[in-house]
Amino acid sequence: MTPVERREKYIVGNRVAAGRRPRTRAVIIGVCLVAVFVGGGVALAGWPGSGHAGDAEAGEPLPPASDEPVPSPSTSPGASASPSPSVDVDTARRIPIPDNGPGTFTTARSAGSPVGSGATVRRYKVQVEEGIELSERDAAVEIETILAHSRGWTADGRNSFQLVGSGPSDFDVKIATPGTVDRICGAAGLLTRGEVNCTVGRTVVVNLKRWVLGSDQFDGPVTEYRALIINHEVGHRLGRGHVTCGGEGEPAPAMMQQIKGLYGCVANAWPYAEDGTYITGPAVS
Fold it and tell me: Is 267 a domain residue?
């Protein structure tokens, strides 16, 4: 079976198996990420600077010492239903979520062919914290499927992506326990409270809790929520900044901080529409 056939198998399987999750009463405290560039490594393939802010659910800068409470943003419901699975969702939800891990990671040794027709190939690794029951191979295949999606960033005709298991990479995706996420993000001045994700320089740090459970405010399959996280963060790596809702009833841009509210838009995980139109809105300063 070829890599394309493998990805299509996962996609078709999700159309049959993935249902819409019932919304619960729990409210996940999310905050806007400020992506901070941290020295170390050389950006490859012409990456723009890493000074972009935000992701789907993200950390905020650590506040100065104060007795004042840190504010929380409003939450955002809804999701469109485009597939991006690699593992059985019900099984994934049963993965234990330890509060802390050792802070060391296993790199998925899976390697794929470039996906997309763009001349610029962005190489990336997928790493899972040691001691948790999430398969790094399954995570890598799922992220590869997201980045190969017809509505993903390859639709711009300029960028391609390649999963690598060794050698140099343009960015890494780390999936980690809440405590480890707090430590990595906190070292860069970001506050994640054990709940949300962040980006530090060239590294996307995904909270295991969000990867397994999704968000109670995201009314759709957990695989769709994962796609929003990956698409938003990789969008920053491509030089895309934050935008807001483009109009009442329109799909929310992937580069919109949807966790802060939809402002009349409909939740959406993908950068491009089915007809190839880039989904955007007014820039956020």
Answer: no
